[in-house]
Amino acid sequence: MFSLADKNLFEILWKKKQVIDTLTARMMVTMGNTSSWDATMIRKAKHILGLMTAKHLKLLKKDAIRGALADLNNVEFKRLDVKAAMSSKVIEALGGRENATAWTSDDIINSDQFIRHSPWVIARLGESSFKSALKTLCQKTMKRKQTVLYAKRLKKSKEFRDPSKVDVAKLREIGCLLGSMGENYIKHISDDVLGQSIEVIKKSDLSRAEFKKRRGWGKVARQLGTLMRVLKPSELSALTFDDLALGCLQKTQLDMQVTDIQVRRHRDSAIHLSQHSQANILFDKVQRRLGVTLAHRPECFLRWNCFVRRAVSASSIDSLPAERDALIQAAGALADKDQNYMDTCVMEASVAKQLALKLYEKYENVHQRDILPVSVGGIENKVIDTVANYLAYLNPKTWETLLPTQASRIIPIVGLGVRGVSSRTYSKLKDFALKNVYDELSDKVVDRRKTPTLEADDLDDLGVLRCYLTPADLARLTAAAIESHLADMHTCPLSVRQGRALYKAYANHFPYVYRDLLVNLENSFFREMLFVCVKQYRCD
Question: Is the pTM of this model over 0.70?
Answer without folding.
Answer: no
